[in-house]
Every structure is written in C-alpha cells, then in structure tokens.
Amino acid sequence: MIFSWLRNRRRRRVLAQPFPKEWEELLQRRVRHYRYLPPSHQQRVRQIVPVMVAEKEWAAAGDFKVTPEMAVTIAGQAAVMASGFDEPYFFDRLHTVVIHPKTIRFAPEQTSRNPNLPGGWLSGIAWHRGPVVLSWGEIRTELTGRSPGRNVILHEFAHYLDGLDGPADGKPPMSSKESERRWYAVTEAEYLRLVGSARRGEATLLDHYGASNRAEFFAVSTEYFFELPHQLYERHPDLYAVLQEFYHLDPRQWLPRIESPRQDDAGDGGDFQRFRARRQRRSDVAQLKAVQAMAPGDALYALAFDHLQRGRPADAIRLFDQLLEVDPRDEESLAHRALAYLRLQRLAEARRDCEAALAIDPQDAEALWARGAVALQEGRTLEAVNDLSEAVDASPQNIEIRRARASAWMVAGWPQKAVADLTEALNIEPHDAELLAERARAYQALNRTADANRDIARAKLLEPELAWPA
Length: 470
Hints:
MetalloPept_cat_dom_sf; 3 domains; Protein MtfA; TPR_rpt; TPR repeat
C-alpha cells in the first residue's frame, strides 16, 4: 500500500510538469501515429511518455549510450498502443528497457549458460516478467518507412502485454469470458490459416513469422493492426475486430493508408515469388556446399535421402544402388531403399531389402517400418502391427512411423489405439492437416463425432484447397 502511494505521488509530480516542447516535436517527427491521433489520445500519450521515461531503467548494451530521444521514441510508440485503454497505462511490470546499437546477438558462451537466451540475429526480444530488449538500428530503419508492417517496438511490447497473465501464449488478458471466447475462436482460425499458407509458401499479408507460434502471431498481428490497419481490415476483418476490441482503438479512422510492397500486395505475388526463388537458391547453394564438404559416400547418401524426402523414389533408388555396390552391408541404405521401393509399390523388392537390413541390425527403425508397411499391404495385419510397434519403440519421435501404425490399428479394428498414435504424432507436429484428417476418421469409427468435426475443421483451415471428408 505504501509503495503504491509513493508511486502515485511521484507520478503526480511528473505529470504536473509541462510536457517538454522538444518531446512534442520528437513525437510528431518520430512516432508516425501520434500526429494523426485524436486530441484525447494524444493527451493520453503525453501522460504515459514522461512517466515511462522517468520510471523505467533505460539501459544500453556495452558502451552504447541511450539518449532522451531514444527513450521518448520508444515510450511514444508504446504509449500509442495503450492510448485507447480506459485509464492511463504505464506498463508497471516492465522495469527495464535494454537498447542495442545494432542487431542483437548473444554470444555462444551466454546461450550455453542460459537456455532462455535465443540464438541467431534478433531485432528485439521480450521475456515474461523480464526486460524488453530492442535494436536501435532496426528502429531507425523502420522509422524511415521502408518496412511497411514492421515495428519492433509494437512487436515486443505486444509480447509484454501477452505475458501479463502468464507465459506468452497469444492471448493477452481479456475483459470478459465472452471476449476471451471470441478472441480464441477468431485468432485460432486465423493462426491456422497463416500456418497453412506459410507451409505451402503462399504469399500473405501477415508476415510468415507469425506462423511460428501463437505468441508470435499476436505480436505480428499487432504490428499490422497499427501499421497497415486498412489492409488488415480488408483481408482479415474478424482479426481486426478482436484487436480493435482489445486495444480499444480503430487506427483506420485516423491513420492514412500506405501501400505495402510486401508479400501479396504485389498483385499476383510476383515480388514474394521472386523472394521465395532467391531464398530457395540460397538454400540450394548452402546444401550443395555442405554436400561438397562431405566424404564421397556420405555425400551420395545425403543426395539419395534428399530425393526420397522430396518424393523422387526412383532417383533415390538409383543412388542407393551405387552405395550398395560399394558396401552391400550398408543397412541404412538398404532400409531407405526399401522405403523407396515401397513408394513405388514394388513390394517384393522392398521386403527383400528390409530382411537384409534387419539381418544386419534387427532394431533398424526404417527397416521395421518398411517391412510393417509391406505386411499391411499384403494383408498380414498382425505382423504389420508387431513390426510397426518395434519401429515406434526404436524411433518414438518419427511421426511417419506412428502414422503407419495408426493405419494398421484401423485395419485391425482398434481405432482407439489409432487415436492414441495420431495424437502422439500431432503433439510432435500439430499442424499436419493429414494427421488431423486421419484422427478424424478414427474418431468417427468410435462415434466421437464432435471430436472428428473439430479435427476436420482444423484440417480445412490448414489446407482449404484439399478435399476433406464431410
């Protein structure tokens, strides 16, 4: 109680001071939204900014120096987010904002000591009950307007809001149960659509980074709600509506429309398709360099496995043949050639390779999987179940083996066991539409119609163009 009283007293003193003229000019120049806000919302921003600047610790990384301009710019963007709330909101649980001069990257010794530190290059990061960390270089780039839809300050402060009621999960605190239900219904459907589009490499308005998880979806959606509100409203009106309800703001009413060259704003997706092509070329070059650095046998195996993964079993068989000419007891090549034969329905050859691989290593998961799949196609269901169960024991994280055993359980007349396998597979890969459809069929066999309908609905959101059972 005494601490709240002291805090409120200190804030009254801060707010009693005239708002600095240079800060007003800075907000007008640096915070694009501010100059378009209605007067009442501008006043709310002028209440929030001085309190945040005074109360937060504005820390710099290394020898970098934090200036008042940086603090006011960041506080101003955060204040715009909060300007629609009924009472002035000062982000009380946030104590520290750390500013890096350029892109953020934690040293390997730091990430090895602290598993909560992410690897790679970052423009910002926010921890549950921890600091918000921002790259000033990224902020300055975004202030130029060259990255429509991107705003790292809004993104990371959205993570902060998301974490107010527990670890960030894409659902910030809601005002009522009804709002919570509406939020979940809309955002879950929109998230799954984005996941499906990202997996297919389709052009979308929302950045595919939002498909990483639900917390990132909320943060990315917040960026577009404030930065490209007109486009978001036109293409995702339901998502816009729940964000409008949460933030108590409607940026369409005051922010001028700007066009975005990103993703599906390029008409036929031309810019995005060119971006995808460049990214694929970089990936192919990196893969080629990795293969060239391998020993010849390892390189040939990597290429054969890549053919198998990409749905080119005949090409895979040709390369596995070369490997097995050199070493006929290479059980990995035997097992994977068996899987390639299986995809071509060459069952006798698949069975022969399985037996040869299992004679060398009786626990080879791929060989057991292939032999079980052959047995299932030949009508030897119990043999298939036994082989596939051994394969699951040997490789419990392999969702394809679990999928194969689920098919065997269905043929054997045990749909409950199929549900268990498919559920385990979906725990590993929750956005596989075909796994959802297969579990729906198992649920139907158990007369669990509501569960089946739920899975089909999710599958349709992920892959709307495919023909799903009614």
